[in-house]
Structures are given as C-alpha cells and as structure tokens.
Amino acid sequence: MFDSGEVVDPRVHCEDCQACCCRKEVLLLGDTRVPSHFVVLDAWGAEVMERLDDGWCIALDRQRLQCLIYSMRPQICRDVAMGGAECVAARVESDLC
Question: pTM of the predicted model, to two decimals?
Fold first, then answer.
C-alpha cells in the first residue's frame, strides 16, 4: 500500500462499517485479476463489477462484510483509503452508515 498523504478520519474502521463503499459502481480498468464471473458490461460496454439487484457488489460476503476477492480486488477498491475522503463520502451518502 502506498501513502497518498490523504488525511483520514481515525474514527473510521472497516470492521464497524456497513461496507458503504461496496455499493458504488466499480469500473475495471486495464488488466485485472478479477474472476470473470464477477464482471459484467455496463450500458456503454465497459467492464464493471457486477452488482446485485439491491446495489451491493457481488463480491461482498454480506454476512461478514468482507470482500470475497480481496487479494484480487480492483485497483479502484485498493485506492479507497479507510477513513479517507471517498470512504467518508460513501458513509454519508448511505442510509446504513
């Protein structure tokens, strides 16, 4: 992991979150290691992570709130810093966080 210098909220932890970031559309760019059964094409023909009917990422284990493909997760998921701006924004947008 790299240090982006981003200011993070130290009160935010993935363990007590409701996986708010897992409700965002995830565009797959470049060569990914994401298994093909998790990938669909969006309306414009771009590869994205499939989402369930309720908007959750298909790779999320909803019981444990953990990514099933964590070691192969897309770069965009790797780039979201716990407690960083995108993380906090996802928590604010979600009714669950």
Answer: 0.72
